[in-house]
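Just wondering, does anyone understand these tokens?
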Amino acid sequence: MSTTRPYPPGDLGPEPVGAGASAAVPAGQIRRLRLAGTRGTVARARDFAREALQDWGWLPAATADQRAAAEDVLLVVSELVTNACLHAEGPEELRLRRVAKVLRLEVSDLGAGSPAPRSPHRPGRPGGHGMFIVQRLCLDWGVVRNADGAGKTVWAELAAPS
């Protein structure tokens, strides 16, 4: 795991010094999508994320940088949900949380394993690139085990477009 911040899902760490009530997450800035037992999970998750990005003003993008930031979010959503489908008995839930200049993606599943980028990374080989992509595109990412021992949440944070 590559995370440098072992905060549990939903905890973005301590508030910066000087942050007051305005740093709180406004209502409507957290989105949840139940994925357990659904078909077309990856496409459904991407559509859900795209709709949230539209509601939050990331799409339609006015500049190439804004468009790239939104595309990165959609790619990371696809990778995290695909990993849960392939390696963790399927995803249970996707959560998107927008806080200031950071978007946090969380995918919960019931799997026992922990995702990790393949090392060494071999770009010419098919498959196995998902967590390498997540690591390259995100500010940070990590895994938090559920308190009851059944499953985990894989989270990733991306910067908001400038």
About this structure: The longest helix spans residues 64-87.
